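BUG: 3D viewer hangs when loading the predicted structure for this chain

Environment: internal workstation, default settings.
Expected: structure renders.
Actual: progress bar stalls at 90%.

Input used:
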Amino acid sequence: MARKIVSGIMLTLFLLISMLTLAFNIQPVKASGTIYIRADGSIDPPTAPVQRNGDIYTLTGNISSDASGIVIERNNVTLDGTGYTVQGIGSGQGIDLSYRTDIIIQNMNIRNFSNGVYLWYSYGITVLGNNITNNDSSGISLCHSSSNHICRNNIMTNNIEGILLYFLSGSNHIYLNTIVANKRSGIHLISFSDVNNIYGNNITANTKYGVEIDYYSGRNTFYHNNFINNTVSTGSSVNVWDDSYPSGGNYWSDYEDKYPDAEEIDDSGIWDTPYVIDEENEDHYPLLNKHQPLCDVVVIKVEPSKLVVAQGKSTFIEATVQNQGNYPEYFDLFIYADDNLLETRPVKNLLSGVISTITCTWNTTGFDIGNYTISAYATPVPFETNTTNNNYTDGVVTIRSPIHDVAVVNVLCFKTVVCQNYSTFAYVTVENQGDFIETFNITAYANETVIHIITNINLTSEDSKNVTFAWNTTGFAKGNYTIWAYAEPVEGEIDTEDNTVTDGWVVVSILGDVNGDGKVRADDVLAVALRFGTDQGGPPNSNGYIYDANCDINDDLKIRVDDVLTVALNFGQG
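Structure tokens produced before the viewer hung:
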């Protein structure tokens, strides 16, 4: 008896505190008509206390309406009440979401309408963290609406139901709500409202039923709810009332009165005797104590794409978060460089156990040269008790002065052996490693002889380009030649060591020599013959050999009869 008295006192205190909180947040405003968020994103009337930032709409004051409160005609938006109140006179819809998808309604007080939040043929809606009270019919009403999330709301003292699901409203998720003192039912399912998941709610002291089920609304799942001073009516529908062992079912405040001889199963927090609702419905694994939700979001990594970035340039920061709790979570992620907030990113409906990576672009314009510590912070979610891992610090990103720097990063010759008086090619990769758009020249050499010059190469910062040099060996003596390339320094360039790259050497030899030994012998003929029929970049031939540039005597990017014949006709030379 003493336990029941204390429970009643705590409930009374809770209701008083909740209602006083709502009262203090309401400031009188003049009654007005309905506010619309139109399909084109505009706010009608434009004088309404609603501020738009892209697809996020924020209340900037209380709204009092003698009709419906806010009608949303646009998909994929967030309406954030920021603690303000939308109040009616007992008619209309507080927030009308008819035929809408992908909407978030959060952080507002909604009261004194016919229905506080109204979903009609709606899906993908999230109703999150609102106080929904004193509406003439339902706090939240869903008709023919599926795949919605109703979570972490206080739904109290509505004249009929706290939450109503009717006419084929299925596959909805209703969790972590406080559903208290509604005049008929806490949650009412009617007319084939099937396969809904209802879990983790506090359903307390609703006047007639905690849960009321009518007209063939079956296959719904109820678990981890706290049913306190409520009854349940199933209407002969068959539903699931637990999450199996060892997860458990629901907490029932009258359990010990009904089953005084029940015992706990192996310190599991679960009673050994099912809680019978009716002939076809029972909680097989009722909870010994009130369910305490595990809610925990963690920042597990923050990683900048660069550790050094030029002032005025951009870099990317990846922040990785994980939901380590048992419920879907909605929270904000803040990314910082020292104490400078770089970006706030909402994380929506992060499911239990799921990891998500958020990428932030940091433009360093306006930041001083120096070192900056990168960190990320996830706002604690309701019921989260361990917040030690909500913040993660990675290390230091250095902002440096912008520089001029061009470089040769690679030189690759098409052949290592070229016949005298024939041509070959060299491929050179150049890169702008500085922070300005640069125009420069590049020169290729064979030993100290210029073989090709390309002028006016234009590259933006961090861009690269492949250029091709032709080398005609006419006039070059037989022997070994070192091939290298040189990028002329641009104005203001200090680091010039990387302006030169050497590939190695190329042998200029007699016609028909493909192995560079200065003679044409059987091994040269065999090498070309074995590669007969191959093409550059093509598949192996019937002998299993692929293209070899040294065997392509005439540089037509294929090895055919003319290449074999050239080597054969010069057999014995050298």
